[in-house]
Specification:
This protein is mainly alpha-helical. The chain has helices at 2-45, 50-75, 78-81, 84-94, 96-108, 111-114, 117-134, 140-157, 166-192, 196-219, 222-225, 229-258, 260-263, 270-282, 288-305. Helix content is 82%, strand content 0%. Helix 7 (117-134) runs antiparallel to helix 8 (140-157). The longest helix has 44 residues, at 2-45. It is globular, with a radius of gyration of 20 Å.
């Protein structure tokens, strides 16, 4: 009897610690996402184009993480060659196609739409794909939490009915597809128990050898060379180092801790945090609707994430 009584609290405390650790990593991932969004706007204000910033993100992170792939190849090449189809799919889901969809959508849809459609798709599709492929059931608590999160994103974005145009709808569809690819990336990580560091390196390198050459062939890198040195160095640090490496690694780690359905909710926190960070960086004071939206996202996120999780079906 004594053994049974002490084992239950121990298990519960272990699950609680795991949940708190996952929430901490998720908050860090969302904070990095907010930093990326705000300094992307800052870079655009100082002469950079979305394609310039995307090239920096992929190029710098790819070069930084290249040694990890080289070491892995020398130590255990079978880890890469034996699962090459899975690694190829990882690169397709979170690498160049994702970047091109987001870049193209920004040219077609208003900026306000970028604060809701990709993040709502990540959350909703992450939950749906995990339920279909991993048996992570759709609970009423999780679905209602996602609904609150999406409502908060609408408030944060300040989206208006007259912003929906023919080209804007195409951009919105591209945002949704990009968010769906990211959600699929999270499910793939969990299903095959992929190492977060190696997955981050594969994605960065795949984008380095695909997106960057196309960018250079079309632009010659002239946009980057024309930037003020201070702007270029800040964007190299934020886009290439912090966002390019940190976003992928923290998200991959969070998936391993919380599972893809729960992890997919945290990116929705990034637009709200970006409204707070935009105050000191861009001199944009958040309005009542933005603050209310951030509060709703936090409430929905806590409600959905702290609910009982389902065992993953092997």
């Amino acid at each position: 009897m004594a053994i049974a009584d002490t084992s239950t609290p121990s298990f519960a405390s272990g699950e609680t610690r795991r949940l708190l650790r996952g929430i901490g990593v998720g908050l860090l991932a969302a904070s990095i996402g907010a930093l990326y969004v705000v300094f992307a706007r800052w870079g655009l204000q100082h002469g950079a184009s979305p394609m310039d910033l995307t090239a920096l993100r992929f190029g710098v992170s790819g070069l930084i993480l290249l040694p990890i792939l080289v070491l892995q190849w020398r130590r255990a090449p079978a880890v890469l060659t034996g699962q090459w189809r899975i690694w190829l799919l990882v690169g397709l889901l979170a690498g160049t196609p994702f970047g091109l969809l987001m870049f193209g959508a920004l040219q077609l849809a208003p900026a306000s739409h970028a604060a809701i459609f990709p993040f709502a798709a990540m959350s909703v599709m992450g939950m749906v794909i995990a339920a279909i492929t991993l048996g992570d059931r759709l609970t009423l608590r999780r679905v209602s939490g996602i609904g609150i999160v999406v409502g908060g994103l609408v408030l944060i974005s300040g989206i208006r009915a007259d912003s929906f145009t023919a080209s804007g709808l195409l951009g919105d569809a591209m945002f949704v597809l990009a968010g769906t690819l990211w959600a699929g990336f999270g499910v793939l990580l969990r299903k095959h128990r992929l190492d977060p560091v190696l997955a981050t390196a594969v994605i960065a390198f795949s984008a380095l050898v695909t997106f960057v050459p196309v960018y250079l062939s079309f632009s010659g890198g002239g946009g980057l060379f024309a930037l003020d040195m201070r702007v270029l160095l800040v964007e190299i640090l934020v886009q290439g180092v912090i966002a390019g490496v940190g976003t992928l690694f923290t998200y991959a780690s969070m998936v391993g801790i919380l599972g893809p359905a729960r992890a997919a909710i945290f990116p929705a926190l990034a637009p709200g945090l970006a409204t707070l960070l935009a105050w000191p960086v861009l001199a944009h004071m958040p309005g009542p609707a933005e603050l209310a939206g951030l509060f709703a996202v936090i409430v929905g996120l806590i409600w959905a994430v702290t609910g009982q999780s389902s065992p993953v079906r092997r």
